[in-house]
TrEMBL record:
Residue ranges constituting the Glycosyl hydrolase family 30 beta sandwich domain according to the UniProt record: 411-470
Sorted UniProt keywords: Glycosidase, Hydrolase, Signal
PANTHER family: GLUCOSYLCERAMIDASE, LYSOSOMAL ACID GLUCOSYLCERAMIDASE
Family the entry assigns: Belongs to the glycosyl hydrolase 30 family.
Gene3D superfamilies reported in the protein's UniProt record: Glycosidases, Golgi alpha-mannosidase II
Domain of life the protein comes from: Bacteria
Native organism: Danxiaibacter flavus
SUPFAM superfamilies associated with the record: (Trans)glycosidases, Glycosyl hydrolase domain
Protein name: Glycoside hydrolase family 30 beta sandwich domain-containing protein
Pfam families linked: Glyco_hydro_30 (PF02055), Glyco_hydro_30C (PF17189)
One Gene Ontology term of the molecular function aspect: hydrolase activity
Residue stretches in coiled coil: none
Length: 472
């Protein structure tokens, strides 16, 4: 099943005193205006419009102005996408070949009805959305393996690695981030998958674990572009999980991980923190440590606590370090109108306006029972798609990511766009020179507004709660 996009041009009325938007065609119309054509992709839950290329005809009325200015540019975008959990890979892999191929093309290709997912996060070992807890070096109680002689990617070879290979065949340039939920239990203070801390005497062994993972995936044809050191290091209550305080993460980086990557010729980026926006002090304290910071590319955030604009404080203090938004869940059963507004405002607009190069939703796929998950893992994590056998249902996160991923391709640069009350927005310039503006109408009424760029303008509107991506 695929979304049937309406293959139409968006028709917009432009005042006769203005030029049409660049790259558009203009024809006479009744009244005092001209008609300009551009692409507008709309999701409007109230009208059951789901990411459709839409005709939008106006009568020439104007409104608040969103001024787009490509002379002011900010960060380069690496991509938009999802977390490909072990459970997600399980459901995708178990589809019949033709159904799986169609779904992966829809998710990862860039043409036709595809949404162009361009970035993935995978778990290093199990996340809480695997059927069971595992690491790549599980040992009988009392045994250790500091040289990683028993390290094996075998648990990922059943589902995750085959699915990644199919994705890479569709999009060879997709970037992949790896994040661990827990080290092997023999490295931990409590010898348990849940909680505990990494023992300092195993810092070097754990650095070798990361290197073996990166090298092992490379041998499978899978490049790991970046790693975070620990998923949610201040949340030891998940299964699996690890408590890693900032001073512990700093010590691990500068004493073991950074030097080990350097001596092994590992170019994979090291990213800090990977937790909520309420604790910017965590990554900033490590970035203040020059011995640790020399090995660090940047910091990653979630938004289960704290405001999104906190991220700009980290950028302003350390502008040479990158920012990534790496996870936000949608709770089952989902509420498209509310999910769309909150996530578009915070993850697509907010995260990128606050310097993030990446924005990711949580799990790509689950079944209708939100399975699998570990004992104690998330029981209400709604997939971007729900897969039952070969049947696919597209959920909130699918449309949220589609509004950015299809058009804001890797290498795009965020450019300036003015803030307008009730119409949060963000603008980009693509590598091909196109402009992309994503606008949310968070007000309670239909909003008419004007988009201006380089002396040209066009008028359009959005219903309450609707999202528009405008491309010219």
């Amino acid at each position: 099943m695929k979304i049937l996009h309406v293959l139409l041009f968006c028709t917009l009325i432009v005042s006769c005193s203005k030029k049409t938007m660049p790259g558009t065609s203009a024809t006479p119309s009744s009244g005092n205006g001209t008609v300009a054509s551009t692409e507008a992709w709309i999701t409007d839950p109230a009208l059951s419009v789901l990411f459709q290329k839409k005709n939008n005809v106006l009568t020439g009325s104007s409104g608040p102005v969103i001024q787009v200015d490509d002379k002011q540019s900010f960060q380069t975008i690496d991509g938009f996408g999802f977390c490909l959990t072990g459970g997600s890979a399980f459901h995708i892999h178990n589809m019949e070949e033709a159904s799986r191929a169609a779904l992966l093309k829809e998710l990862f290709a860039t043409d036709g009805n595809s949404i162009g997912t361009s970035y993935l996060r995978v778990s290093i070992g199990a996340s809480d959305l695997d059927e069971k807890v595992f690491s790549y070096d599980d040992l009988p109680e009392g045994q250790t393996d500091t040289l990683m002689e028993k390290f094996s990617l075998l648990p990922d070879k059943a589902f995750l690695i085959p699915v990644l290979k199919e994705i890479l065949a569709i999009n060879p340039s997709i970037k992949i981030l790896g994040s661990p939920w827990s080290p092997p239990t023999w490295m931990k203070t409590n010898n348990n998958s849940k909680g505990g801390s990494l023992k300092p005497e195993y810092y070097n062994a754990y650095a070798r674990y990361f290197i073996k993972y990166i090298q092992g995936m490379k041998a499978e044809g899978i490049t790991i572009d970046a790693i975070t050191i620990q998923n949610e290091p201040l949340h030891p209550g998940n299964n699996p999980s690890l408590l890693m305080l900032p001073e512990q993460q700093a010590a691990f980086i500068k004493q073991s991980l950074g030097p080990a990557f350097k001596s092994s010729g590992i170019s994979t980026k090291i990213i800090l923190y990977d937790h909520n926006a309420d604790r910017p002090d965590y990554p900033m304290s490590i970035l203040a440590d020059k011995d640790a910071a020399q090995y660090v590319d940047g910091s990653a955030f979630h938004l289960y606590a704290g405001p999104i604009d906190t991220l700009s404080k980290v950028h302003d203090a350390y502008p040479d370090k990158n920012l990534y938004f790496t996870e936000q869940w949608v709770g089952a059963p989902g509420n498209l109108p509310e999910d769309l507004k909150w996530h578009i405002k915070n993850l697509i607009i907010g995260a990128t306006r606050n310097w993030c190069k990446v924005s990711l939703q949580w799990n790509l796929a689950a079944n209708s029972k939100q399975e699998p998950h570990t004992p104690g893992g998330c029981t209400e994590c709604l997939g971007a798609v729900t897969i039952d056998g070969n049947q696919v249902k597209r959920n909130s996160a699918y449309y949220i990511i589609a509004h950015a991923a299809k058009f804001v391709r890797p290498g795009s640069v965020r450019i300036s766009s003015t803030t307008v009350n009730g119409l949060p927005n963000v603008a980009f310039k693509t590598p091909e020179g196109k402009k992309v503006l994503i606008v949310l109408n968070e007000s309670n009424t239909t909003q008419t507004f004007t988009i201006e760029e380089n002396g040209t303008s066009m008028n359009t509107n959005l219903n309450s709660g609707a999202v528009g991506t405008y491309v010219w």
